[in-house]
Amino acid sequence: MPWIWLAAMVVLVIIEALTMALTTIWGAISALVMIFLSMTGLAVHWQILIFLVLTITLILTTRPFAIKKLKLNAKTNVATIIGQDVVVTKKITKFEKGEAKSSNAVIWAAASDSEIPEGTICTVSSVEGNTLILEPKGGSEKQ
Predict the structure, then answer these.
(1) Strand partners, 135
(2) Burial level of 81, CB count in 10 A (0-12/13-18/19+)?
(3) Could you report the per-residue pLDDT of 7-46, keeping only the tens digit for each?
(4) Residues 71/72/74/76 CA torsion (nearest 10 deg)
């Protein structure tokens, strides 16, 4: 039985390495513990029960702390642009996308429910795919 737990641990570590989701690593840690417990002659059904309880306990108690410390829920670059001001560099119409430049000089595809002329400063209200959804700021135009 120790070899089965070792195999389970290796598979779970590989899955974790591929997904980086901090989920299967707790099963791998539990499998490591089970390698040693299986050498005691404990019945297989008890080993499986202990493995499941230990895995679920580790997920519920340590995963939130690990995610917080590793900052896995940090905002992506796209999420940070929401609420920022951008300058329209290519006219936007209701039925045709235009372009807008963000403060870090990245040019984005941009859309809006209304027509926005070039040079208008807008606020990013949301992001759909790679397109910024813009709302014009009250009458401000670039010189």
Answers:
(1) 123
(2) buried
(3) 999 999 999 999 888 889 999 999 999 999 999 999 999 9
(4) 140
What is the number of other CB atoms lying within 10 angstroms of the CB of residue 121? 18
Each domain of the chain, given as residue ranges in start order, spans 2-70, 77-141
Q: And the tokens for 73? A: 């829920």
Q: How far apart are the first and last CA of the chain?
A: 75
Which single residue is written with the structure tokens 């070792």?
6
pLDDT digits (tens, 9 = 90+) for 110-141: 999 889 999 999 999 988 888 899 998 875 44
Single-letter code of the amino acid located at 40: T
User: pTM score > 0.90 for this model?
Assistant: no
Place of tokens 């670059």: 77
Report how far residue 113's alpha carbon sits from residue 128's, in angstroms, rounded to the nearest whole number: 14
CATH 2.40.50.140 correct for 77-141: yes
